[in-house]
Amino acid sequence: MASRSYGVCVLYQRAVVVKIMCRGMSAAAYPQSHVDFLKGEPHRKHPGVTNLKTLRLPEELQMAAQSIIHRAQVTRLTDRSRSLTNFLWSRKRAVEDSTLRQKALTLEKELWEKAMEKKEDIDEETLEDRIRKKVFSELRRTTYRWTPMKFDEELGVVYMAARLAGGYAAVRRAMNEIKKRDPSFAPQSLLDFGSGLGTVVWASHSCWGNTLKEMVCVDSSGPMNTLAERLLKGDDENAEPHIKQVYFRQFLPVSPKVQFDLVVAAFTLSELLNGTEREETVLTLWRKTNSYLVLVENGTKEGHQMLMEARDTLLKKKEKTVYDNRPASVFAPCPHEMTCPKLVREPVTPCNFQQMYHPLPLPGHNERQTEKFSYLILTRTEPAETETEGVDWARLTAPVQRRSRHVHCRMCCPDGQLQHLVLTARKHSRDVYRCARSSDWGDQLPVIQRADDDIQSDSE
Q1: How large a percentage of the chain has pLDDT more than 90?
Q2: Low-confidence winner among 122-136, 221-235, 343-357 (lowest mean pLDDT)
Q3: pLDDT over 60 (residue 308)
């Protein structure tokens, strides 16, 4: 009996030793240098965190907006702002001419085949005319009717009530990515294309107000430029603007050699007529970019796809005349420069993110709302060194699901793949695990994929 007890004790001790050795091997898979990514920060503030708390409009901007809305006395403002929000969210790109022609040819062919099967004794010219009318009728019925937004003063006020706070939140969140990951960036000049109400100026001023010396806002709408100026002056035309050195234009600066440290186009690509115009605009904006180009769109499939088209244009398109030889590289949110994995999976879903914010205090507005958006940041400079050598940073593409002793993370990884990874302290180190528990949708995670990782289907 004693010998048996001794044998059990020996086996138990061996099991403990093996367990300790395994833990040591697990730790060895994550050398101390791999934990240095924290750079002395607590886990909840690790370098991959770029999310912001619930945002509020700058006080001067909110007071000016309320004053303008109160003085405008727009009838049914709440209903109209809600309708405009829904319209803008569901807006699609205009159908390309080539797509429309192909659709018409296919439809015409089908109608001819059906007519030939019936073998009716109809004059060919009459039949051709009838088929042409049917094709036009079907195209009118099934084709999305895109029309450009034309703002007058009243519609501008409705747009302000609907989109000022949400647009500011999306742009501010995108800019925080640059501010957090590249703290040495101190822009002196800004170009905002499709500036609208000037939310980009306010968002960039909140990030780099101490260094920005020239801000050029370009918008083809005169009434919108006027509204943006009124907002800067607190709705008092005799007052000094709250943010100085802001210049409004209806056209881009002509010289291709004029560059700006920061170039932004927020919710603008969707207002361009077709793919050719979007491509030309993106190339023009890139030529005017000295450091960072920021593009923001609605967090819909349409918005995401337009951004991915812009990304492909800047990474793959060769320009005939190059004024700045520094190539484009993706800064955020993509952790790679391969084809977006969300575009090749069925069903196609947008890569989007969200930011909580306080809307303007108007009737019908909740205390807090969520802005869902997609964004793309490209840079001419080398990416900021937030990634410790040997550590790959993945982007969280969905909320983290926190469970007992493990977390579920859905991520876009540097290898260009989407992964649903189950992280534990034992497998992935205590630091990586605690960072994951402290992270949220849109943050980056220092994930080192192991051979025995529990990787699940992203569709689960």
Answers
A1: 60
A2: 122-136
A3: yes
Note if the bond before 333 is cis, omega within 30 degrees. yes
Q: What is the pTM of this model?
A: 0.85
Whether residue 458 has pLDDT greater than 70: no
As a whole number of Å, the end-to-end CA separation of the chain is 52
Domain 59-85+149-379 CATH (choose: 3.40.718.10, 3.40.50.150, 3.40.50.450, 2.30.40.10): 3.40.50.150
Closest residue by Cα to residue 209 from 169, 249, 175, 250: 175
Looking at the DSSP bridge assignments, the partners of residue 392 are: 447
For residues 10 and 308, the model is more confident at 308
3-state secondary structure the chain: CHHHHHHHHHHHHHHHHHHHHHHHHHHHCCCHHHHHHHCCCCHHHCCCCCCCCCECCCHHHHHHHHHHHHHHCCCCHHHHHHHHHHHHHHCCCCCCHHHHHHHHHHHHHHHHHHHHHHCCCCCHHHHHHHHHHHHHHHHHHHCCCCCCCCCCHHHHHHHHHHHHHHHHHHHHHHHHHHHHHCCCCCCCEEEEECCCCCHHHHHHHHHHCCCCCEEEEECCCHHHHHHHHHHHCCCCCCCCCCCCCEEEECCCCCCCCCCEEEEEEECCHHHCCCHHHHHHHHHHHHHCEEEEEEEEEECCHHHHHHHHHHHHHHHHCCCCCCCCCCCCEEEECCCCCCCCHHHHCCCCCCCCEEEEECCCCCCCCCCCEEEEEEEEEEECCCCCCCCCCCCEEEEECCCCEEECCEEEEEEECCCCCEEEEEECHHHHCHHHHHHHHHCCCCCEEEECCCCCCEEECCCC
When the pLDDT of each residue in the chain is averaged and rounded to a whole number, the result is 85
Cα separation, 46 vs 179, in Å, equals 14
Tokens of 401: 């699901």
pLDDT band with cut points at 50, 70 and 90 for residue 324: confident
Contact between 456 and 422 under an 8 Å Cβ cutoff? The reply is yes
Write out pLDDT tens, residues 58-96: 999 999 999 999 999 999 999 999 999 999 999 888 888
pLDDT confidence band for 330 (50 / 70 / 90): very high
Return the higher-pLDDT residue of 191 and 256.
Answer: 191
Q: Is the dihedral of CA 370, 371, 376, 379 positive or negative?
A: negative
Give the angle 84-86-89 at the CA atoms, nearest 5°: 105
